[in-house]
C-alpha cells in the first residue's frame, strides 16, 4: 500500500480531534448540509473510493462537483481534503448510531427482530459501499479517524447487538450463550458480505440479500433457541 503523500498547498491538512468529529453527547446531531456542500462531499467520497485518498486532489473534487478546478470554492465548505474524509466517516458513524438507537427501541419477538436486524445492517452497509472501501484502504494514515471509526462502528455495534441478544435470553427466547462472541460472529458475517462487494465490485458468491438474510436468521435461531 502506498504511503501518505506530502500534501501540497491546495490539499493542506487540518488535523481533527475525534472528540469533535464523533461527539457522543446525548442529542448530538449533524447539521443538514447545504446543496453545494452535499454535492462536494458526495463527489469526494466517490473519488476517494475509486482512486484512493492520496490520488485524489482538491481540484479533482471541485471539477467533479461542477466547480472550476482552480476556484477554491471547496474551501467555503471544507477547510481541507482531510476534512472531507472526516465528514465521510462522520456520516457513516452517525448512521451507525441511528441503527443502534433503533435496535435499542425494537420490541419485537426474536424471530421478527433478527430479520429486521440483518436487513437493516445489509441496507445501511450497502448504501455505504464507497465509504467501506475508504475505511478498508485509506484510514491507516489517519489514526484519529481510524480509532474513532473503529470504536463507533465496530465495537459499539458489537456491544449493542450483544445487549440485544442478552435481552432475548433474559426473556427466555434464546438459550444461555456467550453474547459478545455471538455478536462478533453475526455482525462479522454481514460486514464481510458487504466488504467483498465494496473491494472487488462484485459479490464473493452470487446470492441475493434475501437469501443471505434468510440463512443468517436460520442459523442464528436454530443455534440459540432453547
Automatic annotation (TrEMBL):
<dbReference type="GO" id="GO:0000976">
    <property type="term" value="F:transcription cis-regulatory region binding"/>
</dbReference>
<protein>
    <submittedName>
        <fullName>TetR/AcrR family transcriptional regulator</fullName>
    </submittedName>
</protein>
<keyword id="KW-0805">Transcription regulation</keyword>
<dbReference type="GO" id="GO:0003700">
    <property type="term" value="F:DNA-binding transcription factor activity"/>
</dbReference>
<dbReference type="InterPro" id="IPR039536">
    <property type="entry name" value="TetR_C_Proteobacteria"/>
</dbReference>
<dbReference type="InterPro" id="IPR036271">
    <property type="entry name" value="Tet_transcr_reg_TetR-rel_C_sf"/>
</dbReference>
<dbReference type="InterPro" id="IPR050109">
    <property type="entry name" value="HTH-type_TetR-like_transc_reg"/>
</dbReference>
<keyword id="KW-0238">DNA-binding</keyword>
<dbReference type="InterPro" id="IPR001647">
    <property type="entry name" value="HTH_TetR"/>
</dbReference>
<keyword id="KW-0804">Transcription</keyword>
<feature type="domain" description="HTH tetR-type">
    <location>
        <begin position="34"/>
        <end position="96"/>
    </location>
</feature>
<dbReference type="Pfam" id="PF00440">
    <property type="entry name" value="TetR_N"/>
</dbReference>
<dbReference type="InterPro" id="IPR009057">
    <property type="entry name" value="Homeodomain-like_sf"/>
</dbReference>
<dbReference type="Pfam" id="PF14246">
    <property type="entry name" value="TetR_C_7"/>
</dbReference>
